[in-house]
Amino acid sequence: MKLRILSLVAAVALVSACESAPEQKGATTTGGQTAPQAARQVVAGSVEDFVANVGDRVFFDYDKFSLRTDAKGNLDKQVAWLKKYPSYKVTVEGHCDERGTREYNLALGEKRANAVKEYFSANGLGKDRVATVSYGKERPAAVGSNEAAWSQNRRGVTVLGK
Amino acid sequence: MTTMKTIRLLFAALALFAGALVAVPARAELVIDITRGHMRPLPIALPEFFGSAGQEAQAGRDIARVIASDLERSGLFKPIDSRAFIQSVGSLQASVRFPDWKQINAEALVQGRVEAQPDGRIRVEFRLWDVFAESQMAGSAFTVAPNGWRRVAHLIADAIYKRITGEDGYFDTSIVYVAEDGPKSNRRKRLAIMDQDGETHRFLTDGADMVLTPRFSPTQREITYMSYFRGNPRVYILNIDTARREVLGDFPGMTFAPRFSPDGNTVIMSMAQDGNTEIYTMNLMTRHKARLTNHPAIDTSPSYAPDGNKIVFNSDRGGAQQIYVMNSDGGDVQRISFGDGRYATPVWSPRGDLIAFTKMKGGEFFIGVMRPDGSGERLLASGFLVEGPTWAPNGRVLSFWKETRSDERGKGFSSRLYTIDLTGVNERMLMTPVDGSDPAWSPLIP
Fold first, then answer.
1. B142 with B33, same domain?
2. Chain B CB within 8 Å of residue A108 CB
3. Residue A41: pLDDT band with limits 50, 70, 90
4. Is B198 left (phi over 0), alpha (psi -120 to 50) or beta?
């Protein structure tokens, strides 16, 4: 019990250290779960801005490639941002969880990436701006063998390029 | 518990040696019936092959060791510890003292010798003895360069296996696979090739590009596989001898899941365009491309029947992954898997009698086989993830890969190659220097 309190104190100390350390700003922009205080300091129109303030990924249900309502909401924000910064081209990566076979998942990842591309197109982003690539189950974002990780891995990720 | 029997059948046995046929009296003969499961591997004595000088003696030791290891891993033989041997290797050259081998319960005995030739090559001869019948079952000789000893050992193991089981061997073969290392989120994936026992391992690609699903050509000098070279996932052909690599065709979308046709003239694969995956063939001589499927669902993992007339493939056109068979021109599509669960990665046996597959059901993965009409489904192996069966050329043994669960930090994760007998027994890990996936077994080396 005493140990737990000690570690809690240590964690609080660590958090306050982060908040006051200027070199931390904007450094953690992977994964779209960036803390709000970091997001305030990213440059508008940058890759970090897109990832942190818009969100670069949408998630799919098991063995599905149809866009969920929450995914469409996110993609609407992506479209608005990409229209505001028209110099970017994007590659949509399609990914799967590890609960399928390799070749089928390459095909399924392609379907997921294409679903995002079609949504972009329907909302006014030219197809010449959007490429797709499938990684199947080969590039998991979360490495656990549980539903929490798998739901993070069934994803379409919009990667910005010039 | 399955059963294997060593049966002694009564019929006239012919002893073969160096091409000469010698008739011996009718007698019980040593036979392993490998169509049954087994519980008792055949005890076999494999003393060192005799060699008079240092180099010959070393080759003799190495050859006997490799033969013993091949036979042992088949699960059908149990090599006897050499410390139990009564008759010495030297005296064995003069004549076999059968009582000495009966006493240690050796049912078969392999005797051999290695002799250096004037031209620098080595001559390796062997004889297979039925100890209780006191008769010779097989024998032959090979003359090769000294570094060819390992292959000779596999050829002898194949000869022994064939003589006793009646089936072709599979020891003089290679396996190509995807060697994996690095963290689970960013694995380095390289093509690697090795003998079927894991020896003479070497990497074929450097890991700069992710590679997947290698498969041998019928001549086994070429491998077709998928690579993410320059970020474009496409099917390639690699020549093992020249290391020359060539992208296959100018397809507008991702190509993957390639396999050679049995005659080696065609590669069949999937191509994904605008989200839809269909099965295509490309003739390697004419470069002619043909689309075989035309369906908005996923059509992938094609594999030819050994006669080239049928193709088995994976599709979710019925709602979930199932196995289908069609003619080689894409006509007459028939679903063959109707069991509970999802079916994937069908591969036709080189004997034509079975199709191996991956099955997913209730959160578990299985390796199984069924007849080409979908009947007779049997599950051979299972696990958190088992995937991607490939057939040994005799259609009696399968290799596949197995992954383990990991925690949130990737701890506990591994991916290893395994082999298993068609009867569902004798599951063995194949030792590789790093993790592996996607094994592909070669045909017998010509």
1. yes
2. yes
3. confident
4. left
Query: For the CA atoms of B210, B216, B217, B219, what is the dihedral angle to 10 degrees?
Result: 130
The per-residue pLDDT of chain B, averaged, comes to 92
CA distance B82 to B71: 15
**B145 and B201 fall within a common domain:** no
**Distance (Å) from the C-alpha of residue A9 to the closest C-alpha of chain B?**
25
Please indicate, yes or no, whether residues B237 and B289 belong to a single structural domain of this protein: yes
- Residue B446 included in any domain: no
Q: How far is B171 from chain A (nearest CA, A)?
A: 28
Q: Could you write out the DSSP letters of every residue in B41-55?
A: PEEEE-PPPB-SSHH
For A100, nearest residue in chain B (alpha carbons): B360
Q: Does some domain include residue B264?
A: yes
Task: Walk me through the domains of chain A, giving residue ranges and CATH numbers.
Answer: 57-162 (3.30.1330.60)
Residue at which a domain ends, from B119, B148, B165: B165
Contact A101 B413 (CB under 8 A): no
Which ipTM was obtained for this model?
Answer: 0.91
The number of C-beta contacts closer than 8 angstroms across A and B is 112
pLDDT in tens, B253-297: 999 999 999 999 999 999 999 999 999 999 999 999 999 999 999
Q: Is the pLDDT of residue B298 over 50?
A: yes
Angstrom CA distances, B363 to B167, B230, B341, stand at 36, 36, 10
A117 CB neighbours in chain B (<8 A) are: 275
User: How far is residue A89's CA from residue A34's CA, in Å, rounded to a whole number?
Assistant: 23
- For residues B142 and B195, membership in a common domain is answered with no
Number of domains in chain B: 2
- Does B208 lie in the same domain as B140? no
Rounded to a whole number of angstroms, the distance from the CA of B53 to the nearest CA of chain A is: 52
Is B437–A143 a contact, with Cβ atoms under 8 angstroms apart? no
- Of B114, B130, B165, the residue that ends a domain is B165
State which residue of chain B sits closest to A66, comparing Cα positions. B275
Domain region containing B60: 4-165
The whole-number average pLDDT for the span B129-151 is 96
Q: What is the pLDDT of residues B374-393, one digit of tens each?
A: 999 999 999 999 999 999 99
What's the pLDDT at B28? 61
User: What is the mean pLDDT of the segment spanning A29-41?
Assistant: 50
Question: Which of A65, A103, A142 shows the shortest C-beta gap to B213?
Answer: A103
Closest CA–CA distance from residue A106 to any residue of chain B (Å): 8
Q: Looking at residue B119, which CATH number applies to its domain?
A: 3.40.50.10070
B300·A149 Cβ contact <8 A: no
CA distance B13 to chain A (A): 49
pLDDT of B438 strictly over 60:
yes
Amino acid at B17: F
CB < 8 Å to B185, chain A? 139-143
Give per-residue pLDDT as tens, B161-173.
999 999 999 999 9
Q: Does the distance separating the beta carbons of A145 and B384 come in below 8 Å?
A: yes
Contact B385 A113 (CB under 8 A): no
Instruction: Inform me whether the pLDDT recorded for B36 exceeds 90.
Output: no
* Residue-wise DSSP of B210-270: -EEEEEE-TTSSEEEEEE-GGG--EEEEEETTT--EEE-S--SSEEEEEEE-TTSSEEEEE
Q: For residue B281, what are the contacts with CB-CB under 8 A and spacing of at least 6?
A: B261, B266, B267, B268, B269, B289, B290, B292
Within this chain, do residues B123 and B209 fall inside the same structural domain, yes or no? no
Contact between chains at B187 and A142 (C-beta distance less than 8 A): no
Restricting to A residues 10-49, those with a Cβ less than 8 Å away from any Cβ of B are: none
Whether residues B349 and B381 share a domain: the answer is yes
Same domain flag for B297 and B409: yes
